[in-house]
């Protein structure tokens, strides 16, 4: 079942007695507040395994970091109070501009200890790494053509009924996401690019 966080909050009664094998939470940074309604609704589900996906940096605030870690692996780092006592307080003291060398060393030691504990269930993929695996040779001309078709429009883009017209830069963002994911969404008729006319069906 694929469902938004908002819809899921309204289904807590129906899902209360369901055994869920795997729960995958995209936009995981939305779970950084352990007291939010969404977090509470998700933690109430009977789930065997949880996966949190996020493209947003989450390690700057240790309380938010704990919420996400505790959601994915409940009680692994203890309670929130235990985490604060064992890790957060010492790490934060070391970040203070007036911290002594001894305090900074203790902070780094705790940070390293925490990193070692959570490393087995965190997979981090940087943009530099991902760029090595992105397919570019076959799809690049097609994607580039679709992109130029949309961005080069004067505000009215033919989309075969799939997409609405673009009236502003902000309004174009969802359209461009779809185009970059699947250039075929742009209609074939009446479209041209800086490289000349092109046929999407043949390109595919």
Question: Can you describe what's shown?
Answer:
This protein is mainly alpha-helical and 204 residues long. It is 46% helix and 7% strand. It is built from 10 helices and 2 strands. It has helices at residues 5-9, 12-15, 37-43, 62-72, 80-95, 101-118, 127-130, 140-151, 169-181, 200-203; strands spanning 19-25, 46-52. Strands 1-2 form a two-stranded parallel sheet. Strand 1 (19-25), helix 3 (37-43) and strand 2 (46-52) form a beta-alpha-beta unit. Helix 5 (80-95) crosses helix 6 (101-118). The chain is globular and about 60 Å long. Mean pLDDT is 75; it is low at 154-166 and 187-204.
Secondary structure topology:
Elements: H1 5-9, H2 12-15, E1 19-25, H3 37-43, E2 46-52, H4 62-72, H5 80-95, H6 101-118, H7 127-130, H8 140-151, H9 169-181, H10 200-203
Parallel strand pairs: 1-2
Helix pairs in contact: 4-5, 5-6, 8-9
Helices, by number, come to: 10
- What general outline do the C-alpha atoms trace? globular
* Radius of gyration of CA atoms, rounded to a whole number: 23 Å
Regions with pLDDT < 50 over 5+ consecutive residues?
A: 154-166, 187-204
Structural class: mainly alpha
Question: Could you give the order of the helices and strands?
Answer: HHEHEHHHHHHH
Strand content: 5-15%
Order of strands across the biggest sheet? 1-2
Report the end-to-end length measured between terminal Cα atoms: 31 Å
The major β-sheet equals: 2 strands, parallel
Return the average pLDDT rounded to an integer. 75
* Strands, count: 2
Helical residues, percent: 40-55%
């Amino acid at each position: 079942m694929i469902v938004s966080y908002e819809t899921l909050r309204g289904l807590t009664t129906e899902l209360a007695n369901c055994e869920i094998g795997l729960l995958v939470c995209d936009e995981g940074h939305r779970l950084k507040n352990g007291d939010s309604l969404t977090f509470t609704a998700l933690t109430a589900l009977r789930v065997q395994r949880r996966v949190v996906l996020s493209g947003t940096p989450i390690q700057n605030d240790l309380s938010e970091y704990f919420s996400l870690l505790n959601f994915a692996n409940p009680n692994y780092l203890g309670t929130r109070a235990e985490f604060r006592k064992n890790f957060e307080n010492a790490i934060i003291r070391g970040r203070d501009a007036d911290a002594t060398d001894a305090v900074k060393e203790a902070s780094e030691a705790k940070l390293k200890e925490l990193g070692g504990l959570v490393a087995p269930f965190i997979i981090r993929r940087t943009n530099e790494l991902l760029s090595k695996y992105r397919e570019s040779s076959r799809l690049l001309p097609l994607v580039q053509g679709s992109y130029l078709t949309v961005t080069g429009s004067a505000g009215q883009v033919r989309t075969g009924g799939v997409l609405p017209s673009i009236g502003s830069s902000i309004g174009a963002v969802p359209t461009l996401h779809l185009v970059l994911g699947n250039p075929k969404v742009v209609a074939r008729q009446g479209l041209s690019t800086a490289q000349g006319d092109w046929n999407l069906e043949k390109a595919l």
